[in-house]
Amino acid sequence: MKQKTHRGAAKRIRRTGSGKLVRARAGRGHLKLAKSRKRFRQLKGYTELAPGDRKVAKRMLGGK
């Protein structure tokens, strides 16, 4: 039977053209007034997935 993609993981993790797994940085969702503008600028963009999470994430995304 074919394995299905984990939809929650698919919405949060993306695979780049070179095959790396990237995610958005945490801490931008709420309580924004308590955080400085500098902190928000530094949280922009994407970051690579931690090595300990890669194996599980690849399996959830249905990749090899």
Q: How would you describe this structure to a colleague?
A:
- This protein is an alpha+beta fold and 64 residues long.
- It has one domain (7-61): Factor Xa Inhibitor (Irregular), CATH 4.10.410.
- It is 36% helix and 16% strand.
- It has 3 helices and 3 strands; from the N terminus they run H-E-E-H-E-H.
- It has a 3-stranded antiparallel β-sheet.
- Strand 1 and strand 2 form a beta hairpin.
- The longest helix is centred in the C-terminal third of the chain and has 11 residues, at 51-61.
- It is elongated and about 50 Å long.
- 2% of the residues are buried.
| Radius of gyration, in angstroms, nearest whole number | 15 Å
User: Going across the major beta sheet, what is the strand order?
Assistant: 1-2-3
Number of strands: 3
Which residues form runs of ≥5 with pLDDT under 50?
A: none
Strand content: 15-25%
Q: Count of DSSP helices?
A: 3
Structural class: alpha+beta
Assign an overall shape.
Answer: elongated
Helix content: 25-40%
State the name of the first-level CATH class.
Few Secondary Structures
CATH fold title: Factor Xa Inhibitor
Topology pattern, helix = H, strand = E: HEEHEH
Sketch the major β-sheet: 3 strands, antiparallel
Q: What is the annotated CATH architecture?
A: Irregular
Mean pLDDT: 93
> Distance between the terminal alpha carbons, to the nearest Å?
16 Å
